[in-house]
What does this fold into?
Amino acid sequence: MLLNLTILPGDGIGPEVTGQAVLVLRAIAEEFGHQLQLQHKNIGGAALAAVSDPLPPDTLQACLSSSAVLLGAVGSPAYDHYPGHLRPEAGLLRLRRELGAYANLRPAICFPALEDCSPLRADLVRGTDIMIVRELLGGLYFGEPRSIEGIPGSRVATNTMTYGESAIERIARIAFDLAMKRRQKVLSVDKANVLECSRLWREVVTRCAKDYPGVQLSHMYVDSAAMSLVQRPKDFDVLLTENMFGDILSDQAGGVVGSLGLLASASIGGPVGVYEPVHGSAPDIAGKGIANPLGAILSTAMLLRHSFQLEREAACIENAVSAVLNRGSRPADLTRDNQKATTTSEMGRRVIEAVKELASDAKRKSA
Ligand code: IPM
Ligand code: MG
It folds into this structure.
């Protein structure tokens, strides 16, 4: 198969982690007989520095003409004082919108080897396997009007949360479809005791659930969901929620399973999917070779699964990551006490080694 991808390394640790993810993709292409065609483009702060636009036209064009996009991270303190549309984040938000990527899937899985990395007791976190389904093109992120108005000292800032029935329904269906292939549970998270958006959300999600009689739907307010996520994470299966709540709860889920550095994501629903680690640009550790590449590497597994239906290849990457963790390798964000941290590139190398072993095992079995 031709894997025609645009790579957007972006800012901070983005280039380091996507570098390793691309090497893993190369190994997969070689082992499973696919052809990899890559173009690298700028986004975020890197694009602002180059052409003063966080999503330059040629970047968008490249993304639209490829089959999937692998992104590192955007965000840089250098642009903290810039107006909203000239911040690195604006590039990512526009990319999501231009690509119609309304469904953001963020799995949070406790790897057996990492039970002791969670700040929670191992018996609480063991077996955690959550799929966060975050609506990605609505709510406060995109609502109009938005502004800061008035004279300094008495300015007023406005953001708007809006959700239409169709936007709620399409993301709800993604969550229910995923739940059918998992443990048949959807928890919809909202703030229906306070927000109109949430009341409509709850009504529409409940209506959709009628088409999925095998799936058990429950609802929870976001404050209570935040508490339950640390009290009993393994009870969660699919967690469906709106844009801002999903942003917050997915970072929290990363903390629960040991480190945000492990979390991968898929932003899908439109013609081209975007795959990126959840962790962000982490400018404080950029360039030191200590970033955890596993979020980016696991994002390539999601890319192969969701954009190319290459389930075997996706599972090979996921199993390779598990194997590397089982053998005791730990990037810096997952080390404890006096454990030795494995560098970004060495983690990548070990995953590739495991990919090759697993792929040749599979070939031997099918021969
Ligand atoms: C994420 C990030 C982004 C978001 C930022 C970088 C705009 O935090 O993907 O979770 O808020 O969606
Ligand atoms: Mg976030």
The chain has two domains: 1-107+259-367, 119-257.
